[in-house]
Amino acid sequence: MTQLQTTEVPAAKNPSLAPPDKLAVTLIVNGVEQTLRLAPWTTLLDALRDHLNLTGTKKGCDHGQCGACTVLVEGRRINSCLTFAVMQDGARITTIEGLARNGVLHPLQQAFTDHDAFQCGYCTPGQICSAAGLLAEGKPLTRDEIREAMSGNICRCGAYPNIVAAIEQAMGRT
Amino acid sequence: MINFDYVRATSAADAVSRIAAFPGAKFIAGGTNLVDLMKEDVERPPRLIDISRLPLNRVEDIQGGGLRIGALIANADLAGAPPVAQRYPLLGDALRAGASGQLRNMASVGGNLMQRTRCCYFYDLATPCNKRRPGDGCSARDGLNRAHAILGASVACVATHPSDMCVALAALDAIVHVRGPTEGRALALTDFHRLPGDTPDRDTNLEPDELITAVELPPKGFAEHYSYLKIRDRLSYAFALVSVAAALDLDGDRIREARIALGGVAHKPWRDARVEDAMRGEPANAATFGAAAQALLRDARALAHNAFKIDLAARTVVRALTQAARGTPQSQTDKRIG
Q1: Residue A166 belongs to what domain range?
Q2: For residue A47, is it within any domain?
Q3: Considering A98, A126, A151, which residue would you say is the last residue of a domain?
Q4: Inter-chain contact B32–A40, Cβ cutoff 8 Å?
Q5: N or C terminus: which one in chain A shows less Cβ crowding within 10 Å?
Q6: B64 torsion bin: left (phi>0), alpha (psi -120 to 50), beta (else)
């Protein structure tokens, strides 16, 4: 963990008009260490998309209700819209861009294409990162359990049956 | 979202002294509720004090039985902790009934206790809300109140507490340990949250400069006869319309002790000691459970759109107690209700 540089700002009369200094934040994103200077209110999602140009992670609802922004932090799936980047200082982040290895798709990416597990594709990076986090949790799952465990990822096109089939395929491979 | 500044607490004592020194500052841990409320401008803290790295994330056995749960353990980790699975499965099931896999990885135990209501008017800055701005009025009382309280509500507020975890903790007689600038204290979980009365802006009896450090479970876990039954508009990833944490200690088919906590019906997890006391020594059967359900709901009051919740709550109590008595707790993945 890197040492966070903070500036103690005295209480302003109108805090909304007194922007504090930006903070140095180091994130290890898909294996690459990145140091950014960010306002404290920058979410991890916005840091990835707007500051690191990793636009694979999608902003859907921006309120933790849709799962499109799901990434892995230290291997655990979270909603990147509901955490500030500064809180993740020093953390290892994996996004959809970091799942393929040496030009070979991650088994989940391959399974999603094999099973046509999407239509418009907007929720897909979040679905795949969420499923990767689920697989890492290491429990064998029935179809019912997969559906329950993936309920934090909404697909407005309704590709759920194929998403479940893709995850079942990937569970067999990994 | 307003601009704010950010500091990281180095210890529990440091966290408490920092919040005491900066009125309006807020602690942040998982962030799953607070960040959302900040985006909506419902919460406008000028400073966040990050407590997420404090070493308050252990689950430890207490000598003589019982379990001490660090306030910063993630909901998912607590649900999967062996002592919870083995001795307090009611708590594990309630945790799994809440939110989503991603949110359970982020949300802390302390943050779950501090969760604010999901009343749509509380979130909507364009409408009056006494919880947001005391004295403004309540838009839900004569508004879209299908999901609102049927017990313990006031003229000022009909909001409900949204937590599943807290319903199980209420049934288990959990104790909340907090630390203030000069000393610590312990509150029963059932005294931690408040009824709205005429001060609905206060959700809990926690003081602004106090930090939740741990939740303690007494030795009795009701691991044989329990059920957490949550009824909602969709089968997963939705807040409860009604939920019931039921726990029984049986002597043959007689009830030695019963615990019933309701979620989704009031400003706090709802328990009624008189109802539980009256079940002592009674047979664990449909007549006893039905009478308990009627007694629990005797003071229930409906608003324009939520009368269904009174019957729903009574039936959910009976079903959860029946599942508990049979030793067949509600599955949190197969949602068919047995």
Answers
A1: 107-173
A2: yes
A3: A98
A4: no
A5: N
A6: left
Q: What percent of chain A has pLDDT over 70?
A: 87
Q: Tell me how close the Cα of A25 comes to any Cα of chain B, in angstroms.
A: 12
CA distance B236 to chain A (A): 6
Could you report the predicted ipTM of this complex, rounded to two decimals? 0.97
Q: What is the CATH number of the domain that holds B262?
A: 3.30.390.50
Number of domains in chain A: 2
Instruction: Flag if B35 and A67 touch (Cβ within 8 Å).
Output: no
In this predicted model, what pLDDT tens digit does every residue of B58-115 receive, in sequence order? 999 999 999 999 999 999 999 999 999 999 999 999 999 999 999 999 999 999 999 9
- Model confidence at A38: pLDDT above 90: yes
- Are A84 and B31 a contacting pair at CB < 8 A? yes
> CB-hemisphere CA count at 13 Å for B129?
19
Residues of B in contact with A133 (CB under 8 A): 101-102, 105
Whether the CB of A87 is below 8 Å from some CB of chain B: the reply is yes
For residue A1, being part of any structural domain is answered with no
Distance CA B263, CA B241 (A): 8
Are the Cβ atoms of A15 and B99 closer than 8 angstroms?
Answer: no
Amino acid B269 reads P
Q: How far, in Å, CA of B183 to CA of B257, rounded?
A: 35
